[in-house]
Amino acid sequence: MTDTLFSRLWQQYYQTNPGVKKVYDLFQQRETHVTNDHIALRTFDLPNISLDVLAKPFLDRGYHEADHYDFPVKKLFAKHYEHSDSTQPKIFISQLLTKEFSPFLQKTVSTLAKNIPDFLLHDTDKLLTSGVSWEPIHHQVYQTLLAESEYAAWLYAFGFRANHFTVSVNHLKTFPSLIEVNEFLKQAGFRLNDAGGEIKGTPQELLEQSSIMALPVPVQFAEGVHNIPCSYYEFALRYPMEDGKLYSGFVAASADKLFQSTDAKPS
Ligand code: NI
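That is the input. Now the predicted structure with nickel (II) ion docked in place:
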């Protein structure tokens, strides 16, 4: 990836998350090349930081909107973007529908959005890897958000960054299926997200996915450091459609469970 935006997203993701680094290094050693299926980003639906705002740097790079998804239980909406060059990773961006939450959550989110410096709001490229620009963050606020929406709490604590990258299992040479990938990860000591089963989706749905649970990283709160699950690594195996091309979309029911890969227990 020579593009600086993709390189910044990757470096931030790889350097912040020791678990991600370990997974990537293990696959790299065995496969020599790891192809990225998609990158996922999270945000809130406020006008200055919405999904459509975050999508702009990708549209500027030749991506187009391909499909959209509703997550009524988690109160999320998402779109995915594709590039005409199919070797480029797909981009999956979700946003929390804040109006469906409590006044406390709405007030917290609108305050943090107001505290994002103008130079980031004017430069979405930089915003995408800006992390938390609304310090100080408070652990009590984090826990109150967590009780209502894990997604909101995660964004409050980690801000703008890649939520996950995804290994394209189709491009792996030494793993015939997702089952072997999952066994390899478990033997390496990783815990898989088993919400709805270790493998989400079916060959009939044309997409099978799995993921490791995000590992905790230290987060600086005003009151001190707490360890919270940050980003995770996902694995995707795509099946061909009737025209022989690999399915390039997402399966909402599977994504719904994959969001839980950052689940944190209240502490
Ligand atoms: Ni994903």
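Residues 120 and 127 are 5 Å apart (CA to CA).
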